[in-house]
Design goal:
By secondary structure, the chain is α/β, with parallel strands linked by helices. It contains four helices and four strands. A four-stranded parallel β-sheet has the order 3-2-1-4, covered by helices on one side. Strand 2, helix 3 and strand 3 form a beta-alpha-beta unit. Bound molecules: S-adenosylmethionine. S-adenosylmethionine (SAM) binds next to helix 1.
């Protein structure tokens, strides 16, 4: 997979993070485990906003986020400051990352084309192709 520095662009990724705050809060309302003291994974973390929310609000012991967008990961590291958060540029769980007690992934699975049962990219048609093919 090749992804540029940002998922969309620096500005759009920052905007997306602001827009997703209320969804992350709603997501947290649906879980019934106490995250305090837990080690938590966020797959496709972009700029790390969800893990920062968990560190501030839920008192996680440590958060780990990965994303192929290198610029977003650089922002995530900078924005994390002294919080117990680790970020890596990757498109799958980095080697050695294990033992998580909770894992989240918001708006990412639809982007992963090598999941079992997912058609290979070459057989997927774009909306434009669908419109013009009869
Ligand atoms: C729609 S954004 C969602 C970001 C974040 N989860 C949120 O809630 O704001 C999708 C993110 O998935 C990332 N992504 C794309 N392919 C990925 C993969 N194979 N593994 C992990 N993340 C991926 C993109 O770089 C982007 O940051």
């Amino acid at each position: 997979m090749s992804i540029q520095s940002y998922w969309q662009s620096a500005d759009e990724d920052a905007e997306m993070q602001d827009e997703h705050g209320f969804i992350w809060e709603a997501m947290l309302e649906t879980i019934d485990i106490d995250l305090a003291g837990r080690h938590v994974l966020d797959a496709g973390c972009n700029r790390g906003g969800f893990l920062r929310l968990l560190a501030a609000r839920s008192g996680i012991a440590a958060g780990y986020g990965y994303d192929p967008a290198a610029g977003a990961i650089a922002d995530a590291r900078r924005l994390a400051g002294e919080l117990p958060l680790t970020f890596e540029v990757a498109d799958t769980v980095p080697a050695g990352w294990e033992g998580f007690e909770a894992a989240f992934s918001h708006e990412v699975l639809y982007l992963i084309h090598d999941l079992p049962g997912t058609p290979p990219r070459s057989t997927m048609r774009s909306p434009r192709a669908r419109r013009t093919t009869r």
